[in-house]
Structure to design on (1420 residues):
């Protein structure tokens, strides 16, 4: 809530070359009053903001000099230098705009000379041959055309040269882009250059006056030839799928613009563009230049994306607002709509779907413009009953629940424009009684409230026809909407709709009545349901209503606060609430808090002075329900003014609250408490600055004002005492043995105090400093927090210590420091995993202390390093970190050596993962991109990598074992060999990695005596005795070994990922820059590859995945082409290994393919989302091909791998909508895989199918398996996945034929369950009609036949699946058909299962459909 400081404007200063500087000096006068003197002073400044002031003086200076109307040589030279300065500045530099403003204001006699200078300089720039300078030249051309008459005149003079430059630059950049295929960074830069070139070409055509005349249209004109070449280039771009879609989209605009500019006669342009869009071009009737330039879109099959962007160009580049449109233009508008509707059924790629929705929105905007002055025929074609409007409504109904939020927003705009279009066709007749509006309202109100699109469309209708008609249909609509506000996903939509409704109702009532009686009716309609929910609703409902709806209601009607408080005060005593209910008191506090936070209460004093008593607020602060306490605290802490004085009464109540609420068990409540108190501290800090200013003014005779009723010094002293009291309470709560919630709350609040009240610098004053209240005892208390088993507490304590000034942290003696450091080293090899976290934070804290390096000399063998030339504190931290890491590495090296001899001893005495964790923690706190001791760090990094690989080699055999959970590996120490031999043979799994046969002890023994084993078995337990470092005997269990191994792998993965992410890279080995070489990065990649593809332990490969993701992100952004292509190379290698199905392969076919899906997931998710995602597309096609049914039944391993990888990719949220085009194919292979005779394939297919159901219908939010929140209409489902329509129909027919056989045998078709599960998740909509291209009727008979299944669950699912496929007008006939299939008294042979299935289906038709439609069913 603190006041945000205005960001200072940063302006890069302009400079000139030495020659220009000498020229200015030669022309400058002694008095410094001519233009040369002004410019000389300007260029000598180093601050861009000051230079802006000087440039603004140019025009006034020249106006004074403009006496004889002549431009002298000095002024001419100055104008020439100004031109050079302008063209050298970057496009976004504010100085460029200031120069434009000054040059536009030049006196007339200087304009010609300025244009001449610009023409000469621009000519030089156009002649450049440096491809990477083209972008700057294009930027200068563009800036010259933007409201700059001098620049535009110069471009007009050089029009031929500019066009030739644009033509040449686009061709050369395109060729360069092809050369760098695979180098994403360079390609992105080049494609952005292409985009700028296209845009500049369009701006040129639109703004240069030369194109307004027809002289250039001669076919032998060089201008005409350049235009034709540019048109040809844009047409190629339009159909080039290797380019960014933004380039294709802009090319579509350019093609239409150039055709519009070049084609004669203009009246035939609509016919030409219509034929292009409809792919019905007759080339013989077109000019030769057009056919030659646009051959790709005239004489060949045009891709759907190209058509889409041509439609966009048609709508954007043609003028639909000129009035009096001819029938040709109207026909073009309608043709464009039909093309877009056709494309909507073909396009499934998410980015193109987004383009389509925006273009449809653009079409409706153009239609509105056209209707304002159109013919009667166009109005009849675009009224509410027309086919085009019907198709648009169908598009809205299909996409209003689309996963993409931006697309849902476009459907809202389309619907709103539809209403406007119909209103224009009716010429503004009374909307409320119009049949189209009435029909839409009725249809929308019949929909269930779980449909998000209903809210947005109803909001548009309310804005169009008003709320009165809707309330006349059903007065309980406000209550119905408030009822659904318990569902978080619907809350934003419901609150927006309610806001639209009550605002419309308020303005309607206000305009209809003169007196204020209307407010009572408004309160009854909108406020009374709200108060009922606040007092009686469920917890979620109340929370969402308070957060979303209440603020909007109070902002609309602030006077309603007193009305609400009056009602709630009356019932507060009777409904005080409980631990499960807020009661009226909770509602009262929520209303007061919201009112104050939004400025509807003047101050807290007003709140409890006139509306509510202090006793009532105290009652709220210790209420049984946590949210009531939070709301009451919010009333005290929040204010719409950050400088509002905190009163004494508020301070007392805050201290009262802290006493009872630090130990709250709910994380959410703790977070809210800490956040509100931080807002209070910000208020104290901001208001104290006001008090300091009042105190300094010493205006004792000023009357009392609203800021303070007492002397500022008294208030400041109260603030200081209040903050000290809070600090004492918080430190008092950090006693030994205090609970985690108490420590978390106390440390978080203390951290907020340290952050809000910083150490004063300069003249700034701070009312309180935390460091003044931190003595040695409290410092020790914070250090003891590092021993907590909760990492959150360690983090908060560490952050708090880092926020304190170093003067507040003093070590009494060097022994204490050394003992702390020794304790950290010992904790780093503890067998308790959380101890190494403590060690990490303790070491990081000690690293930042200036006194640390001398104490480390005993642990370091290398010579101490000197400080760098940079910041001293940063150099000290870097030096300390380096020495600590060297110390840890020295210890780690010794321990790895011992672990290579005895892993059991390492697991029992010195698990090495703690050392690695501490090293990673130290590196993460250091700024590795600005190291000063680079030469010292390089050997450390090399040793780090070496130690990581050695440690990995020690522990990886356990992790890569096919049964790592119960494994104690064989050691080379002969002392423990005899006992471990028995354990190994007892638990030894059948593994493929030959680890056991390679151990030394096993090789030395020729045979193993089974009798000895049997004799010794009773004395064998599940652990092994090992002597630790101190000679003590300790037992080692398989679990201890496993924890040591997988945590070591985890820490190695995180360390390597951190090194890749944070360390600067060396492009070549000999380079002096960076720390990591290309070879080291490749080695790290190979390491991750090996362990992701071979590890069996889930914890190991999941954490290796975390580190590998960091590496792939770095490689994707790396300018080194070889490293960039590594990702693609690794992907193809693993796909080939999966396909070959070699028996010797170490890829894990069990454990859901172990780390293989993670490996491919990391490679694909790192691909730039702005690119074409080619790797993802190729991989998905390859995997879907592999996962399909195969004729080779001997090897199904590739199929299992493919199914498991597909599951991981469909689950990955980072891939988002990019995997949606493959959902239909994924569903096909999952359903077909369910019929496989191989169990592994069926298992993987089931898992994939489950993932796809979640991807299609959304994450399950409740216990109801078939909740309406996780369903969609049949129209929407088959519109999004049309390929599933014939597939599901064919599969369902096969299932129905198998179920309905007369053999009397129990025939369970494997895929019946999956088919009915999908179909059962669809639901009918009143919007579904016969116009749908994908008719639901063929499914009905097959689903009915599935109801005869002998499996009860299948009959139940068939009954549910039948509902969405029956249209509303077919319900009675369908029920009659079902009942007619029941056996009568003459039938002797019938099955109870058949009868039960029919009755279930009939019941579902009565229950679900009538409920959805509000339809009363009667059957004769």
């Amino acid at each position: 809530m603190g006041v945000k400081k205005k960001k200072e404007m940063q302006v890069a200063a302009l400079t000139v070359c030495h020659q220009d500087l000498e020229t200015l000096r030669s022309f400058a006068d002694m008095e410094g009053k001519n233009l040369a003197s002004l410019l000389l002073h300007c260029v000598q400044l180093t601050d861009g903001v000051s230079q802006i002031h000087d440039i603004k003086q140019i025009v006034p200076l020249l106006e004074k000099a403009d006496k004889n109307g002549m431009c002298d040589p000095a002024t001419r030279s100055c104008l020439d230098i100004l031109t050079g300065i302008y063209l050298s500045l970057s496009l976004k530099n504010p100085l460029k705009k200031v120069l434009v403003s000054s040059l536009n204001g030049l006196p007339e006699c200087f304009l010609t000379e300025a244009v001449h200078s610009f023409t000469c300089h621009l000519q030089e720039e156009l002649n450049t041959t440096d491809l990477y300078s083209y972008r700057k030249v294009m930027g200068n051309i563009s800036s010259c055309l933007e409201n700059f008459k001098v620049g535009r005149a110069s471009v007009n003079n050089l029009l031929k040269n500019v066009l030739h430059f644009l033509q040449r630059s686009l061709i050369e950049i395109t060729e360069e882009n092809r050369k760098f295929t695979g180098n994403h960074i360079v390609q992105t830069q080049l494609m952005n250059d292409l985009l700028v070139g296209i845009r500049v070409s369009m701006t040129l055509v639109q703004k240069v006056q030369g194109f307004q005349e027809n002289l250039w249209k001669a076919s032998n004109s060089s201008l005409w030839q350049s235009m034709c070449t540019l048109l040809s280039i844009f047409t190629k771009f339009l159909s080039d799928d290797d380019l960014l879609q933004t380039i294709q989209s802009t090319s579509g605009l350019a093609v239409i613009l150039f055709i519009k500019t070049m084609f004669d006669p203009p009246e035939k342009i609509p016919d030409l563009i219509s034929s292009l869009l409809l792919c019905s071009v007759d080339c013989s009737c077109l000019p030769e230049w057009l056919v030659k330039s646009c051959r790709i879109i005239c004489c060949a099959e045009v891709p759907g994306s190209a058509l889409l962007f041509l439609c966009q160009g048609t709508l954007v580049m043609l003028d639909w607002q000129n009035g009096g449109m001819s029938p040709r233009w109207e026909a073009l508008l309608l043709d464009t709509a039909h093309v877009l509707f056709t494309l909507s059924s073909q396009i499934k790629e998410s980015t193109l779907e987004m383009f389509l929705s925006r273009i449809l929105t653009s079409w409706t905007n153009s239609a509105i413009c056209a209707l304002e002055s159109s013919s009667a025929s166009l109005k009849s074609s675009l009224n509410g009953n027309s086919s085009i409007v019907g198709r648009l409504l169908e598009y809205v109904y299909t996409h209003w629940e689309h996963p993409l939020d931006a697309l849902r927003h476009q459907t809202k705009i389309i619907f709103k424009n539809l209403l406007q279009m119909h209103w224009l066709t009716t010429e503004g007749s009374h909307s409320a009684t119009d049949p189209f509006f009435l029909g839409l309202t009725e249809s929308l109100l019949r929909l269930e409230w779980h449909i998000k699109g209903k809210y947005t469309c109803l909001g548009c209708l309310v804005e169009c026809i008003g709320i009165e008609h809707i309330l006349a249909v059903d007065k309980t609509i406000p209550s119905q909407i408030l009822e659904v506000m318990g569902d978080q996903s619907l809350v934003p939509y419901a609150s927006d709709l309610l806001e639209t409704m009550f605002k419309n109702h308020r303005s309607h009532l206000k305009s209809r009545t003169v007196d204020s009686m209307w407010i009572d009716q408004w309160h009854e309609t909108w406020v009374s349901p709200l108060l009922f929910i606040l007092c009686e609703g469920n917890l979620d409902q109340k929370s969402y209503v308070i957060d979303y709806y209440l603020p909007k209601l109070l902002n609309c009607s602030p006077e309603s606060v007193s009305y609400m408080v009056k009602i709630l005060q009356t019932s507060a005593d009777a409904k005080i609430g409980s631990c499960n209910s807020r009661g009226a008191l909770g509602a009262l506090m929520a209303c007061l808090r919201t009112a104050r936070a939004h400025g509807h209460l003047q101050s807290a004093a007003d709140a409890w002075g006139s509306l509510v008593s202090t006793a009532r607020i105290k009652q709220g602060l210790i209420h049984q329900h946590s949210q009531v306490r939070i709301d009451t605290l919010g009333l005290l802490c929040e204010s719409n003014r950050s400088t509002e004085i905190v009163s004494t009464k508020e301070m007392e109540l805050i201290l009262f609250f802290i006493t009872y609420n630090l130990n709250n068990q709910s994380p959410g409540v703790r977070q809210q408490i800490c956040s509100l108190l931080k807002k209070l501290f910000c208020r104290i800090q901001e208001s104290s600055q006001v008090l300091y200013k009042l105190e300094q003014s010493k205006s004792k005779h000023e009357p009392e004002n609203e800021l303070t009723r007492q002397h500022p010094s008294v208030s400041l002293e109260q603030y200081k005492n209040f903050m000290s009291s809070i600090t004492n309470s918080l430190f008092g709560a950090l006693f030994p043995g205090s609970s985690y919630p108490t420590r978390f709350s106390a440390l978080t609040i203390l951290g907020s105090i340290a952050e809000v009240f910083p150490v004063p610098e300069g003249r700034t004053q701070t009312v309180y400093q935390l460091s003044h209240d931190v003595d040695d005892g409290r410092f020790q208390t914070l250090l003891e927090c590092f021993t907590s088993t909760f990492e959150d507490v360690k983090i908060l304590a560490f952050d708090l210590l880092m926020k304190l000034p170093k003067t507040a942290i003093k070590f009494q003696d060097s022994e204490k420091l050394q003992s702390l450091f020794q304790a950290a080293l010992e904790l780093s090899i503890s067998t308790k995993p959380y101890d190494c976290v403590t060690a990490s934070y303790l070491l990081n804290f000690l690293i930042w202390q200036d006194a640390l390096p001398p104490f480390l000399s005993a642990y370091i063998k290398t010579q101490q390093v000197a400080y760098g030339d940079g910041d001293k504190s940063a150099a000290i931290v870097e030096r300390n970190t380096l020495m600590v890491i060297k110390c840890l590495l020295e210890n780690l090296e010794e321990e790895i050596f011992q672990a290579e001899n005895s892993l059991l001893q390492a697991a029992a005495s010195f698990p090495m993962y703690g050392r690695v964790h501490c090293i990673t923690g130290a590196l993460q706190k250091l700024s590795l991109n600005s190291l000063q001791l680079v030469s010292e760090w390089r050997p450390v990094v090399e040793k780090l990598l070496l130690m990581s690989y050695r440690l990995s080699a020690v522990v990886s055999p356990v992790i890569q074992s096919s049964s790592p959970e119960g494994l104690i590996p064989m050691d080379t120490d002969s002392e423990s060999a005899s006992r471990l031999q028995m354990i190994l043979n007892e638990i030894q799994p059948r593994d493929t990695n030959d680890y056991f046969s390679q151990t030394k002890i096993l090789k030395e023994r020729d045979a193993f005596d089974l009798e000895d084993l049997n004799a010794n078995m009773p004395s064998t337990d599940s652990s092994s005795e090992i002597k630790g470092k101190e000679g003590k005997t300790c037992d080692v269990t398989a679990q201890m070994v496993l924890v040591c191994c997988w945590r070591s792998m985890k820490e190695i993965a995180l360390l390597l990922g951190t090194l890749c992410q944070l360390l600067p890279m060396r492009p070549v080995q000999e380079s002096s820059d960076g720390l990591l070489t290309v070879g080291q990065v490749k080695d790290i990649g190979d390491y991750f590859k090996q362990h992701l593809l071979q590890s069996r332990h889930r914890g190991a490969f999941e954490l290796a995945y975390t580190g590998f993701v960091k590496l792939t992100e770095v490689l994707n952004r790396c300018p080194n082409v070889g490293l960039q292509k590594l990702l693609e190379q690794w992907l193809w290698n693993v796909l080939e290994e999966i396909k070959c199905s070699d028996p010797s392969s170490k890829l894990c076919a069990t454990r859901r393919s172990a780390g293989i899906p993670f490996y491919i997931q990391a490679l694909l998710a790192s691909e730039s989302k702005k690119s074409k995602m080619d790797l993802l597309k190729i991989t998905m096609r390859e995997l879907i091909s592999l996962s399909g049914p195969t004729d080779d039944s001997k090897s199904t391993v590739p199929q299992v791998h493919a199914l498991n990888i597909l599951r991981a990719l469909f689950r990955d949220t980072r891939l988002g909508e990019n995997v949606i085009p493959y959902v239909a194919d994924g569903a096909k292979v999952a359903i077909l895989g369910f019929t496989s005779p191989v169990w592994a394939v069926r298992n993987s297919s089931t898992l994939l199918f489950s993932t796809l159901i979640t991807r299609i219908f959304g994450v399950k939010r409740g216990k109801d398996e078939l909740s309406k929140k996780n369903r969609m209409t049949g129209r929407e489902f088959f519109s999004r996945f049309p390929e599933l329509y014939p597939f599901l129909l064919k599969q369902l027919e096969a299932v129905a034929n198998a179920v309905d056989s007369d053999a009397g045998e129990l025939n369970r078709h494997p895929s019946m369950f999956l088919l009915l599960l999908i179909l059962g998740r669809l639901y009918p909509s009143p919007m579904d009609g016969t116009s749908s291209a994908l008719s639901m009727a063929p499914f009905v008979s097959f689903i009915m036949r599935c109801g005869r299944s002998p499996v009860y669950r299948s009959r139940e699912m068939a009954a549910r699946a039948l509902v969405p496929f029956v249209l509303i007008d077919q319900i009675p006939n369908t029920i009659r058909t079902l009942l007619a299939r029941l056996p009568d008294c003459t039938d002797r042979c019938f099955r109870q299962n058949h009868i039960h299935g029919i009755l279930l289906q009939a019941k579902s038709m009565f229950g679900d459909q009538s409920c959805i439609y509000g339809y009363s069913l009667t059957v004769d």
In short: The CA atoms of residues 1196 and 1241 lie 7 Å apart. The chain has a mean pLDDT of 80.
